[in-house]
Structures are given as C-alpha cells and as structure tokens.
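quick one before i forget lol
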Amino acid sequence: MLCCDVRGGVRRWLTLVSGMVECLCFSGAVFGWASLVVVLKSGGYFSSLCVNGTGLNGTAANGTQELDCSGQDQQLSLVFTIAAFVNNFLTLSNGFLFDHFGTTVSRLFGISLYTTGALFVAFSSPALSVLLYPALSCIAMGGIMLLITNMQVGNLFGSQRSTIITLYNGAFDSSSALFLVIKLMYESGVSLMVSFGSLAACSVIHLVRTFLLLPGGHIPYPLPPSYTYGVTCRKSEVFSPVTVDEAPPVQAKSFWKCVFSRLFMFQLLWLSVMQLRHYLFIGTLNPTLQRLAKEDPSLVSQYTNAFAITQLCGVLFAPWNGLIMDRQKSRPRAAGETESESDLRAAVLSLALTALLSVLFSVSASVPLLPLQYLTFILQVLSRSFLYGGNAAFISIAFPSVHFGKLYGLIMALSAVISLLQYPCTILIKVWLGGDPFWVNVALIVLCLTAFIHPVSVRLHCRKLASQRC
C-alpha cells in the first residue's frame, strides 16, 4: 500500500513538471510572432509585395527609390491575425472534443496538428509563402490543445488548483520565446527547415507523455480519495472522468444556463477587450518598432529580442494570480457560505487587478518613445499572464467542472471573433492615420476600462448571495 502511495505521489509530480515543460516549450509558440516575422522578412517571404516607392522629397537620399514593403507587412500581419483567430475560435471544438472523448483522443489530434504545422514551415519558402497560413494556424490549434489537456492537472492538487492552472497558462505565455530561439539560431546559420523539423520531431515526447503520464479520460474535480491513473501497482477502483461527465450532479447547472448567465457574459467582455489590446500590440509590433527606431534594423532587432525575452517571465508572473485567488479563498468562510461562493469572492481581486494591469499596459504602449517600450514589454507580459490564467481559473471555479472544456472553448471562440477587429485596426493605422496608432491606442484604453465592469458585477453577485443567507 505504501509503495502504491509513493508511486502515485511521484507520478503526480512527474505529471505536473512534465506538463509545465510541455506548455513552456511548445504550446503558445505562435505568440512569439514578432521574433519569427523578422526571420521571415529576412528570408524574403511575401517579398514580391514590396514595391518601389519614394521618400519625402520624391527620392531617397542616395538618389534611388525607396522600397515600400507595407504590402508585405500587411500580409504577415494577416497570417498572425488568422492564426490568433483560429487559436481561440477553434478552442470551442477542442473543448467539446476534450469533454466528450477525453485526454488521449484530444492530445493525439492536437499533436498531429502541431506536427503538421511545423512541417509546413520547414518545407516552406519565399515561393511558397502561402504555406504560412495553414502552418501557423495548425501550430496554434495544436498548442492550445496541449494547454487544455494540461490544465486539468490542477485537479490533482486540491487547494493549489488555481495556482497550478495559472502556472500552466503562464508557461503557455512564456513559450512564445520559442520563436526567439529560432530567430537566434537562424542568425547563427540554422535554417528554418532544421529548426521546425526538430520541432516536429519533438512530437514523440508528447506522445510518450500522453500514454504514460496522463489519463485516457479526464481528471475529475473534486478528486475522489482512491482516484488513480496510469500504470498502478495494485488493483484499485479507477475513476473514469468520462463516467463522471456522463453522470453529473443533479444540482449542476446546464451548459446553456451557464452560457446565458451574467457571470459568463461579463467574463466574455472582460476577456475580449483586453485580448484585442494584446493581439493588436503583437501583430503591429514590428512596424511600430520600425517607426520608433526610424527604420534602424539593429535597433528593431534589439527591441524584438527584448520583447521575446520578457515573454519568458510569463511563467513567473502568472502563478501570482493563482496565489492571490487561493489565498483569498483560504480566508474563513462566513456562516453558511458554500465553497462555490468562496471561490467567486476570491476571484474579485484577481479580476480587478488584471483589468488595472491592462489599462497601465495600454497607456504605456500609447506613448511614442522607444526606450519606454521596455516598460511596455514588462507590463504586457504581466497583464497577459494574469489575463489567460485568470480566465481559465474563473471558468473552472464559477461553473460546473463537467462543462469546463466547452465553456472555456466557447469563451475563447467568441473572444476570437472580437479579436478579428485587430486587422481593420491595422489597416486604419496604415491607410488613414499615416502609420501613427495614437488615436487607436486612446480608443483601446477607453475600451480596456470597461473590463472593470466584471469584478464589480461579481462583487455585487457575492453580496446578493450573502444577503440571501441572512
């Protein structure tokens, strides 16, 4: 019996650590786009869209015409826009797949997509630039599936559940630094074929972990006392989370009742406005840096590297959000207060703090000073790590766990539709505002302020529940 307990404990920690490494190294790579786009432009992708233009005086300083590559920038921005949209919108189908078919089937699907996307980039070329569209989309879809199947690991650790969920989301954010590694390797002479071919080969690691360190179904919450998964050293009752899903508690809300609740609607608003701010920042970072650096390629590369390096800090920042929630939850409950009410009360501070960080990031990003962008990068990764970790944690505590995959997928899908506004915003900046995003940034600051509606609403909801107990 002791042998089994020890092995079970070791397995839990191996599952936790290996899941964090997986998320940190692979899952959110697509959001390192700012680093990869430098490589793609250097390699000549979509270079056929560059046309001869003129400087302010009709000619460049050396008497030759300048090359206008705004068409190339727009095409590369569209690649990221579509990948970011796919990353969120198809999370809905990924959530349904996970809820209905379990971990193994979901991960096999995600791994196959990720491998396909990596191979598409590996075999792409300037003549086949169009391959970037399916490639980045497949990498995005496969990566989010790795995250979804890993977040359930938090269920193994009870009172630290929110901390682990946010930790994994922080690792997802930090994995965007993968494209920085590929950029640095490219500058050292390593081709995209070698880099992305190696990335595809790493799928073997994902497969091994799928079969050895994760259940075939789901990890239930609350965790049954005798729950086991993987290879065991004795015969025991293995709880199949699929069975748990097929027989939800009678008192659990229906899926559609959750969707049309005020909590879900305001959570969608909270997520969408801040996500749009982040996506537009990432998608336009390269041309913004070029404008602020006065087209100095060495400065653009320096700041791009700095941005990518700060993304690594996401895994350090995100757990603080979970710790805030878990610490708030650990406070003594009021008489008659349920665990669900305690969870909601604990989420208020997290929701408000995330909205505040997003507003500060938006203000900093709006100031057209190049050195200030270092602070902008820090605020961006801090805000983003709180945003996605907090979103996943809130969905897990505010609604029945039986609906987690579907609700998480739906809210990401709906927010993805709103995030499509980043592309017309990009066109607005380039065509109508002469490349100066100031007024768009001001509008986004105002939009981010609406995110404070959600924590206020949750606070009022908690007070209403408390008054009903009196």
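fyi The longest strand covers residues 51-53.
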